[in-house]
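job 3f2a | input accepted
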Amino acid sequence: MSYIPQSDSGLEEPRECAGCERQGPFQINHDQSNFVDSQTAVVRDLPAALPSGELPQSINVRLEDDLTGALPGGSTVRVTGVLCRRRCEETFELYLDAVSVDTSLDSAPADSPELSTTTRSLSEFVDAAAVAVTGLPDDVREEETKAKLITPLIEALGWNKFDNSEVRLEYTDSKTSLRPDYALFGAGSTTPDVVVEANSAGSRLEESEDQLCNYVRVFSAAYGLLTDGRAFHIYSDTDGGEGPVKRAEVEIESLPDSDAIAELNRDQFRS
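job 3f2a | predicted structure (271 res):
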C-alpha cells in the first residue's frame, strides 16, 4: 500500500510500488483513502475601499470540511486564515488556509468613514485620510504617501487625475529637466498653475522648501504646495519679482476651513 498526499493539481499516483518497485498503473483503494471536502477561491480587495491610486490585490484561499462552499461567487466577505506558501513551478506562491469566513458585510457600519476612489470634498478627504494614516510605519515611502494621501487631496480639490490637460505627474518641458511630483493646469493653461512637491509622511518639509520654490519660479506657477500628506505649506509667486513666498501652513484637520487651500481648488482656475 502506497500513501500519496494529494494537491489541487489533479490526481497524483505513486511512481512505483513502495514494496516491489513495480511500475503502474495503480488503482485507488477507496476504503483506505481519506477524502476531504475542499474549495479553492480567489479573494480580491474591494476597489471602492482602497485609497486612490492603489490597485486591488488578490490571493487564493483554500477551504476545507465545513468551510467548503462558504465563499459564494461575487459576495463581500472577510476571511481569516493562515498565510502559507507552496511551490509553483520554479517559484513559490502565497495562499490563505482559511480558518473562518464572515459573509455579513453587505454594508459598512453607519459611523465608519466612506473610502472611495475619489473623495468628493475636503471634509471627506480628512475623514478618509485619518483612516489611511492609522498604522503607517515611520519609514513609509513617498510613493505610498502620494497614493493614499496626496493624490486623494488633489482630487478633493476638484482636479481630474485622468485628464492629462489638468494633472501631470513628474512633469517637465523642453526648457528644463526639473520634475515636480504634480503639475496642475487650469483651463487653457500651457504652463502649470500649481506645482506640488510630495514628501514621505513625517518628513521635514523645510528641507524641501528651496526645491519647491525653484519649481514655482522655473514653471512660472501661481502657486506651490509642499506636503507630506499631513502638513501642507502653500506658496504663491509675487508680482514684485521677489520669488515665491509662504502663504500658510495648514494641518490636515484644518484643511476644510483654510482659505489658502481653497485658492488651489480647480474652480479657481477656470477660464
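job 3f2a | Confidence is low (pLDDT under 50) at residues 106-119.
job 3f2a | closed
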